Automatic annotation (TrEMBL):
Pfam families named in the record: DUF951
Taxonomic lineage from the root: Bacteria, Bacillati, Bacillota, Bacilli, Bacillales
Organism expressing this protein natively: Polycladomyces abyssicola
Protein name, entry field: DUF951 domain-containing protein
Taxonomic superkingdom: Bacteria
Amino acid sequence: MVLQRKEFALGDIVEMKKPHPCGTNAWKVIRMGMDIRIKCTGCGHSVLLPRSQFEKKMKKVLIQAAEQESKE
Ligand SMILES: [Zn+2]
């Protein structure tokens, strides 16, 4: 069995397996490193997760940071 590595980058908007209690399920990656910090785009609450946990809980990338830049 091959585990597919999820790709994400700083500034990406990602969807998690569980939405935030505020009802929003779109998080912006605001810090990359050993730990990943994501910020809820609905209420601005931020959460710090170890990278392994983040990768388990992340569902998919909704908007890539590179795409956002190209729209500006
Ligand atoms: Zn929220």
